[in-house]
């Protein structure tokens, strides 16, 4: 008993050291518990992947080949370690023959895709920038009509992963996000996604999956990281300081757009069975006795562009890829423009919401559906576009929708969740 009393007396006399030691031990225990939970998640995912690897294949079949475009600089240089620890073991256990191609500098992904050979699946391991480079390089190929049919998997390793909520169930655990995204590739369920073709007057087109953003909220979002020392107040501070430098932050833009086109019915996943021989013979005899009348070629009508002048704080041209399984009557892109009559307090409030989700717009915003649009900026208008969270110089551009151009792997759980939201 005397020894216990002596220990408590020592802790009381050295209470600062004791408090520090308790904090260190508590944090160490929490860190070790987190590492243990991550190991359990990897183990569970590897057990699932091993079942795919144990499936028998016939002698004529070959292993599935996957080309991985990995950006080691993503996630502050941690992407390579995250991929090797969490995604690569799952793919190897599943019997997938993977070829990892690492990018060394910005823009290399476009060049790699222009030279890449045919593969069974393409996996992008990185963030928004890596994904945008890959699809741009893919759709710039001369054989892009056939190459674009290759299914694409996205493993979120970047600081910005805008497409992930459309394809995977997300949580606060990075390891679980990576392992679940990798398992969705093995399960093989895909969904078609729209693509935006963004073309300037001189340069080659750039392609995007989410959209093009331009305006005051975008400019402020690019400066928020400079106010890191303000902690949770940095977003409010960035918006407030921007209003002190210039107010109002209204942008004038001329938007010309084409009406949306009707969406054709979805094609069946498999070709219908070939009719029997007797049916084919009768059909050919009918065509021989009564040959079908050739219809005259249709005369293409000139495109009818409508023009609208907008004064806005922010313009966002976006796809419907936020919910790719939603059934729509039209193939269209959305032109969203915020009103220009915000007060300073409203500007700060809306800016906080857009920092969490840039696709959120107020009720009074202007929304137009179109199949293509042209942006004409006023003379002297500088600034930058955000194209899938990548910065480009602002210039007059034409944005055209490529409906259901690419197919991406999606988790079955996320697909069911998105379907339930549309009902």
Please write out the topology:
Blueprint: H1 2-13, H2 15-53, E1 65-70, H3 74-77, H4 79-93, E2 97-102, H5 108-115, E3 121-126, H6 128-139, H7 144-147, E4 152-156, H8 164-167, H9 174-187, E5 190-199, E6 206-208, E7 211-215, H10 216-221, H11 234-245, E8 251-258, E9 261-262, H12 277-289, E10 306-312, E11 314-318, E12 330-331, E13 333-337, H13 344-356, E14 366-370, E15 372-376, E16 384-387, E17 390-393, E18 397-409, H14 412-422
Parallel strand pairs: 1-2, 1-3, 3-4
Antiparallel strand pairs: 5-6, 5-18, 7-11, 7-16, 8-10, 8-15, 9-12, 11-13, 13-14, 15-18, 16-17
Membrane topology: Peripheral membrane protein
Keywords: ATP-binding, Kinase, Lipid metabolism, Membrane, Mitochondrion, Mitochondrion inner membrane, Nucleotide-binding, Transferase
Cofactor: Mg(2+)
Commentary on this structure:
This protein has two domains: about 30-55 and about 60-190, Probable inorganic polyphosphate/atp-NAD kinase, domain 1 (Rossmann fold), CATH 3.40.50.10330; about 210-265 and about 305-405, Tumour Suppressor Smad4 (Sandwich), CATH 2.60.200. Helix content is about 40%, strand content about 25%. The protein contains 14 helices and 18 strands. A six-stranded antiparallel beta sheet has the order 6-5-18-15-8-10. A six-stranded antiparallel beta sheet has the order 14-13-11-7-16-17. It is flat, with a radius of gyration of 27 Å. The model has no long low-confidence stretch (mean pLDDT about 85).
């Amino acid at each position: 008993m005397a020894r216990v009393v002596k220990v408590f007396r020592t802790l009381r006399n050295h209470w600062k050291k004791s408090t520090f030691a308790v904090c260190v031990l508590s944090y160490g225990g929490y860190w070790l518990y987190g590492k243990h939970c991550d190991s359990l998640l990897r183990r569970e995912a590897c057990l699932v992947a091993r079942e795919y690897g144990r499936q028998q294949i016939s002698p004529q079949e070959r292993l599935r080949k996957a080309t991985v475009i990995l950006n080691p600089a993503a996630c502050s240089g941690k992407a390579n370690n995250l991929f090797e620890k969490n995604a690569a073991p799952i793919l190897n256990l599943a019997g997938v023959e993977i070829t990892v191609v690492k990018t060394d500098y910005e823009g290399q992904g476009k060049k790699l895709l222009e030279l890449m050979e045919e593969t069974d699946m393409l996996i992008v391991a990185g963030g928004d920038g890596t994904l945008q480079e890959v699809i741009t390089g893919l759709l710039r190929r001369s054989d892009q009509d056939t190459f674009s049919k290759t299914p694409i998997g996205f493993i979120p390793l970047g600081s910005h992963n805008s497409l992930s909520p459309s394809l995977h169930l997300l949580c606060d655990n990075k390891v679980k996000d990576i392992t679940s995204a990798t398992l969705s590739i093995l399960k093989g369920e895909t969904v078609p996604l729209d693509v935006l073709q963004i073309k300037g007057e001189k340069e080659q087109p750039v392609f995007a999956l989410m959209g093009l953003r331009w305006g005051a909220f975008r400019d402020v979002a690019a400066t928020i990281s400079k106010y890191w020392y303000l902690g949770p107040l940095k977003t409010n501070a960035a918006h407030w300081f921007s209003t002190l430098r210039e107010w109002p932050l209204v942008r004038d833009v001329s938007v010309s757009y084409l009406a949306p086109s009707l969406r054709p019915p979805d094609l069946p996943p498999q070709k219908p069975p070939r009719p029997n021989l007797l049916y084919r013979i009768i059909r050919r005899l009918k065509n021989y006795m009564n040959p079908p009348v050739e219809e005259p070629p249709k005369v293409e009508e000139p495109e009818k562009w409508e023009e609208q002048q907008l004064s806005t704080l922010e313009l966002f041209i976006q796809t419907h890829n936020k919910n790719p399984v939603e059934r729509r009557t039209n193939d269209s892109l959305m032109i969203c423009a915020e009103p220009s009559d915000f007060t300073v307090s409203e500007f700060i409030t809306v800016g906080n919401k857009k920092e969490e989700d840039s696709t959120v717009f107020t009720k009074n915003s202007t929304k137009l559906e179109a199949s293509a649009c042209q942006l004409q900026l006023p003379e002297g208008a500088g600034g930058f576009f955000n194209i899938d969270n990548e910065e480009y110089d602002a210039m007059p551009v034409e944005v055209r929708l490529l409906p259901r151009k690419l197919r991406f792997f999606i988790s079955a759980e996320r697909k069911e969740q998105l379907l339930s939201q549309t009902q």
